[in-house]
Amino acid sequence: MKPYKMLLAVFMFIMSGLTTQVVADEPEVLFGSVAMDIPAVMHKRLSPLTKYLSANLGRQVTLKLSPNMGAAIKEAAEGSVDISYLTPVAYIKAHKMGGAKIVAKTVTKGKASFQLMIVVKEDSPIKSVEELVGRTFAFGDKRALLQRASVVGSGIKMEQFSSYQFLGHYDNIARAVLYGDFDAGILKDTMAFKWEGKGLRILYSSPQLPPYNIVVSKNVDDKLLKELRKAFLDLDGKNPEHLKIIKALDKKYDGFAATSDAEYDVVRDLIKPFSK
Fold first, then answer.
1. pTM, whole model, 2 decimals?
2. How many CB atoms lie under 10 A from the CB of residue 199?
3. What is the location of CATH 3.40.190.10 in the chain?
4. Crossing angle of the two packed helices 145-153 and 88-98, in degrees rounded to 10
5. Could you give the CA distance from residue 53 to residue 59 in angstroms, rounded to a whole number?
6. Is residue 149 within 8 Å of residue 274, measured between CB atoms?
7. What's the CATH fold of domain 116-205?
8. What Cα–Cα distance (Å) separates residue 8 from each residue in 2, 11, 15, 20, 49?
């Protein structure tokens, strides 16, 4: 090897070592999440995303899963995690408590918003929300405040039902209304459309609502925020490798879209009656 080529090779080797050291010296980024599944399942769902982010940012992104919704909100608000995967209501609370900043929102089956819908049995005599007074109603998860807020936003108060119960999954709600165990229930739009004309009828639809999102704590600087936003928006569902990352998080997701704090005002308005 000629002397100048030898010197160039040595120089490149030294520089690559320095670059590796700089990246290694970058502080790790902690990624938190609401507890939608047991920790092992959430780890499996989020690990492909954290690996992608680590490679994209050139620094280690490590999962720090929250045991429950309250803890996830507190950690995002206080900055004990840098990035969080949150529900719309959780983001609003973390923003109010500690200035958490929105990064991107999820896209489901081509839509970057969703609706919650009140459904009744297809042959039910109930034709309006007002006629739900004195009736029985099925909700999903007791922690899902937006379900109750959307029902109250439709024009009926919780105490006006003769009774209501929390059944967990949307599929449980759909079948309970279909079998006549409840007069009405609330479903996410995708589930409502699945059952529409197959035994259930949509009585009321909420406004378009912003979906699950990615946020950062107020401690994240503008440079890292910009890099994270680009990393999420660059995830391309047409790229097979990217699609694996997206679908690992949720099989219904197509990717991520740009969003803003103002988009969540519709949720703020709905949950006001529950904030007192």
1. 0.84
2. 15
3. 3-110+211-260, 116-205
4. 100
5. 8
6. yes
7. D-Maltodextrin-Binding Protein; domain 2 (3.40.190)
8. 10, 5, 10, 18, 37
Token duo for residue 160: 């006006």
Residues in the chain: 276
Please provide the distance, in angstroms rounded to a whole number, between the alpha carbons at the two ends of the chain. Answer: 77
**CA 150 – CA 155 distance, rounded (Å):** 9
pLDDT in tens, the chain (276 residues): 554 444 444 444 444 444 333 345 678 999 999 877 788 888 999 999 999 999 999 999 999 998 888 999 999 999 999 999 999 999 999 999 999 999 999 999 899 999 999 999 999 999 999 999 999 999 998 888 999 999 999 999 999 999 999 998 999 999 999 999 999 999 999 999 999 999 999 999 999 999 999 999 999 999 999 999 999 999 999 999 999 999 999 999 999 999 999 999 999 999 999 876
Domain 3-110+211-260, CATH homologous superfamily name and number: Periplasmic binding protein-like II (3.40.190.10)
